[in-house]
């Protein structure tokens, strides 16, 4: 499965949200599996979207045919768009599916991993982070995606902001030490996203 992550700064909120509804047109696209998104809880005006495709071939076909027509409705409503593509490596918890109806909060961690530490990073995701997150109340499902090179996206879907808050900073610090994250990762950028139900496709 291919994951597309888009982060952008919205300059015309009403126009952007109106245009966002046009993406319902994705539903007829071959290989499309789902899309959701919302507003950053820590950065005003920043929106995140994640879309899921069965394969790169289906995604490339969509980009060549229909993308520009759907995107036209949002022209001029945002700036600084950053787009990244990741291949699904493994699930966090079990049975990841790209649906958002039962989800309030999306958490993203974008990791640039040192080349010689990639194997260790992936092992720690599986052996340390995965069980810890799977055991967190309110964490419904998640996944680890990888881009060419040493770039990873850890994506987790949470039932509510209150449940997400139970994932305490001191616990995260303990896990980070155990996983030797400082040795593995060159840079990490995260965000917590309040999902907008009307953006779900």
TrEMBL record:
Domain of life: Bacteria
InterPro entries linked to this entry: Dimeric_a/b-barrel (IPR011008), DUF4937 (IPR032555)
Domain DUF4937: 2-86
Protein name per Swiss-Prot or TrEMBL: YdbC family protein
Organism: Streptomyces mooreae
Higher taxonomy: Bacteria, Bacillati, Actinomycetota, Actinomycetes, Kitasatosporales
């Amino acid at each position: 499965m291919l994951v597309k992550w888009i982060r952008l700064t919205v300059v015309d909120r009403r126009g952007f949200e109106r245009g966002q509804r046009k993406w319902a047109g994705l539903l007829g696209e071959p290989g499309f599996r789902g899309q959701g998104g919302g507003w950053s809880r820590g950065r005003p005006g920043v929106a995140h979207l994640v879309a899921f495709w069965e394969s790169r071939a289906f995604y490339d076909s969509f980009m060549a045919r229909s993308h520009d027509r759907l995107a036209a409705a949002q022209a001029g409503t945002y700036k600084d768009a950053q787009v990244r593509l990741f291949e699904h490596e493994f699930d966090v918890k079990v049975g990841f599916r790209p649906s958002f109806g039962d989800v309030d909060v999306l958490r993203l961690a974008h990791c640039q991993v040192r080349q010689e530490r990639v194997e260790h990073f992936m092992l720690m995701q599986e052996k340390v982070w995965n069980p810890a997150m799977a055991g967190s109340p309110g964490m419904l499902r998640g996944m680890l995606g990888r881009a060419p090179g040493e770039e990873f996206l850890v994506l987790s879907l949470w039932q509510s902001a209150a449940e997400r808050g139970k994932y305490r900073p001191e616990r995260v610090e303990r896990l980070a030490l155990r996983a030797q994250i400082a040795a593995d990762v060159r840079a990490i950028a995260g965000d917590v996203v309040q999902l907008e139900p009307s953006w779900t496709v």
